[in-house]
Amino acid sequence: MNLERAQAPVAFLPDWLSLHAERRPGRVALRSDHRAITYAELYAAARSMAARAFALGVRPGDRVGVMCHQGLMHALCLHALMLLRAVLVPLNWRLQPSELAYQLEDCGASFVLCDESAAPLASQVAGMVSRSVQTVVLSERAWEAEASHAEPASIASVDVSLPSVHAIVYTSGTTGRPKGAMITYQNHWYSAMASALQFGLDPDEHWLVPMPLFHVGGMGVLMRSLIYGTTAVVHDRFDAERVDRALASGEITLVSLVPTMLARILKLRRGPYPPRLRAILLGGAGCPRPVLERALELGLPVAQSYGLTETNTQVATIDLADALRKMGSSGRPLANTRIAVQGPDGPTTEPGVEGEILVQGPTVFAGYYNRKEETERALAGGWLHTGDIGRFDEEGFLYVLDRRADLIVSGGENVYPAEIESQMLALPGVVDAGVVGKPDDEWGQVPVAFVVLEPGKVLTDEMARALREELRARLAHYKVPAEIRQVDALPRTASGKLMRYEMRKWVMQG
Amino acid sequence: MNLERAQAPVAFLPDWLSLHAERRPGRVALRSDHRAITYAELYAAARSMAARAFALGVRPGDRVGVMCHQGLMHALCLHALMLLRAVLVPLNWRLQPSELAYQLEDCGASFVLCDESAAPLASQVAGMVSRSVQTVVLSERAWEAEASHAEPASIASVDVSLPSVHAIVYTSGTTGRPKGAMITYQNHWYSAMASALQFGLDPDEHWLVPMPLFHVGGMGVLMRSLIYGTTAVVHDRFDAERVDRALASGEITLVSLVPTMLARILKLRRGPYPPRLRAILLGGAGCPRPVLERALELGLPVAQSYGLTETNTQVATIDLADALRKMGSSGRPLANTRIAVQGPDGPTTEPGVEGEILVQGPTVFAGYYNRKEETERALAGGWLHTGDIGRFDEEGFLYVLDRRADLIVSGGENVYPAEIESQMLALPGVVDAGVVGKPDDEWGQVPVAFVVLEPGKVLTDEMARALREELRARLAHYKVPAEIRQVDALPRTASGKLMRYEMRKWVMQG
């Protein structure tokens, strides 16, 4: 009798959406200002959309790009693709067409679902891909479930396969070459349970997400609400007053924000929110002390977190009181997650040891799509190698010393210097380029570039403007350096590696 | 690129106890009237006890009986065995020594851990087993973590292996031959998550369990509190006044009861409990209508449930309003669970179809220990065959028509007629015997026996007394028939199967 392996590990769960539609059909699944969709309605609309996509040729395992300005339409696409067991590739419409085309090329997508307002960009991007990519424009009628397409048998009551890929989310990483992070269903299940274990679970949860849904942060709110069978409240664009009103209304129980958003909301606030709001979850970047202090003054339940795309959002969290007591700490690991740093003798949580931050647990992603080598490197030895440097203190609190060595977080978006640098090196006259972040009151950080020009050239205001214009055509606007400064040489190690901390000193010196 | 199996299904989670001891050392893990144990203390004491058991010879995978009158000591044993990766066999000290000896014999246990007050029974039972069984008596000093025994390396920070057997819980089943139901760690994990998804999760949960801890119901409260990192409040004996006081104090957030207990508590109640009490979970048997009506009058958050040892507690639940509207229903499936009935064309949830109730999901047990055939029968076709008969209504509510065909639930304990019958058939003068339940104001049900005696014999009061005396020596007291009646013949089908519903009619006719 093998008591060690008496059962196979759980690999399937009954499909969440169909079960909720059966058990609590009238419960609101998704809400925005102009619309509230119940679980029964969502299931019907998602089945209808899945049948339509199937009729067009979308099959299980196909990668399908989704580009929607409207959060609710994005959510509908997400659910339809799940029913079809196709893989969601959420597209960040803030990126440049060439960046998006690269992602579609890389993941081999043949379809892009988009809403009407994103259709022009989606078509443009589709036209740039070497393969034929079909753009499917979804109108408001997508919400009216129609039996116009025959539904394949596989759609009704399909099981959730936990080890399967749910989404491929592109992340630039330190190399500057975007990679598709594969997020599985079990990543979502365990992330949802980790949140519940950390912040509790209200059976009538209303989770507000005024962030884009194409990052793991926004996607996580949709998936958690689905798994819980509760309500996701979606704001398509961040509007501080609107978020403040929603939080003050007493309906919202949880909200996901980036520090920049919280700072703006705090400018409007004079007192605490109703107690039904259990946590303000801050992701993406460290929060400035004055913001935390103001939040404490107002009695807001802020929880800061540390996480990456590769861990499907947060893996460590710290509440407000601890955050002020332990300024700069990212807190302690969430349930079921182990965090360590790479010490001289292997992974350790010994206080004071500095090293690369390692993460182990069921929310760690499945690897990069079609990048065997990078995946093996990232997951070597059974730990996720984050690229971030950190250490623990005596109470087991994690401090991230250098976030992904050189990551810039601007208004909640990750900006990888290497990506900007490689674009700058392609510009006429540029011999070498280095990018670092500069503190910014509004965005948290903005990128600043140092360039070495061809001998004899001088960086005039006009040339800087021209360079930035060139970059604007190739990169999302928040990646374009706020400043470009000329230097004689960049600080490099003997092996040629950029010493960004030296450049950061230059920035601080003004 | 295999997107269908991009990851192995999760098989390991970081050990819950050591993580909580690290993350929230001062939080109370276990509380009784005379003692409060923090997570740090519990971890230290469990390590110490594990080291002692290891020194005595207990090894990973060994089955170890636990017999404790004190709930906290039972819990400490449970945690120590988990750290050792030994298998818990919780022993119901209400059973007769011969019944308990059978269980130890069947599972091949060589050790029994017990507290001082259970020591005499434990020793007696150990002496009845053919193999040598060592009894280890634990005193109050077990709480003082001592480094008197060297700790094997395997104890510190061991992972939880989800597919491994955590416990073997004996259940008599319909055949009358007790079988060891293997409950895995993943059964516990998914049961804990199903509860959280159904009733929400308070990060400061205080779950009161005034029920014995040797059934899955009580064990479930210990395991859920562990998984959540919250507090289990243990009452060693059910005392209605004490439970009422605890619920009224505003500390308790959840409580697990059987209907008999609720009925007694309601006699003391004049108003609602504080709102911090989110749910009164009723398991084990249907609840009489007057009890439900009184609970509704008082505004108590009662939730009735349907479950078995083989599903590691509840798989369906119904709240009070629905319970009164749909009298006799067990409600709808919990999250991640599928329930169906065996229809003519296979499993179905079609309204009105009557058949054996089938359950599918991650809380379904791993099978019966060393009972390959019975396991295959129970889990045939990927569904648990419960032996209960049921049907669904139009709204998807489950009605259990015949609970395990003939199960008697007396004061929260399952009583299987077949077990009593087989003992009665061994008594002198008894030719045939049939047992059914009779409604009882105090216990919910009590067993009543019908006997066919040798020709010419008449059942006198004296003989009935003698028969009951004989049974008392072989069976737990609550299994001994409250009445024995003589009949000429028992109602049997052509194939010889007892038609218990006929006997139930006899009972109702008085």
UniProtKB/TrEMBL annotation, chains A, B:
Alphabetical keyword list: ATP-binding, Ligase, Menaquinone biosynthesis, Nucleotide-binding
One Pfam entry name: AMP-binding
Protein role: Converts 2-succinylbenzoate (OSB) to 2-succinylbenzoyl-CoA (OSB-CoA).
Organism: Alicyclobacillus acidocaldarius subsp. acidocaldarius (strain ATCC 27009 / DSM 446 / BCRC 14685 / JCM 5260 / KCTC 1825 / NBRC 15652 / NCIMB 11725 / NRRL B-14509 / 104-IA)
Substrates-to-products reaction catalysed: 2-succinylbenzoate + ATP + CoA = 2-succinylbenzoyl-CoA + AMP + diphosphate
Name of the coding gene: menE
NCBIfam families in alphabetical order: menE (TIGR01923)
Signal peptide segment: none
Transmembrane region(s): none
Domain AMP-dependent synthetase/ligase: 20-369
Keyword hit for Ligase: yes
EC numbers, comma separated: 6.2.1.26
Family: Belongs to the ATP-dependent AMP-binding enzyme family. MenE subfamily.
One term of GO molecular function: ATP binding
Name of the protein in question: 2-succinylbenzoate--CoA ligase
Pathways per UniProt: Quinol/quinone metabolism; 1,4-dihydroxy-2-naphthoate biosynthesis; 1,4-dihydroxy-2-naphthoate from chorismate: step 5/7; Quinol/quinone metabolism; menaquinone biosynthesis
Entry keyword Secreted: no
Domain (AMP-binding enzyme C-terminal): residue spans on this chain: 419-497
PROSITE patterns per UniProt: AMP_BINDING (PS00455)
Single GO BP term: menaquinone biosynthetic process
Gene3D superfamilies noted in UniProt: 3.30.300.30, N-terminal domain of ligase-like
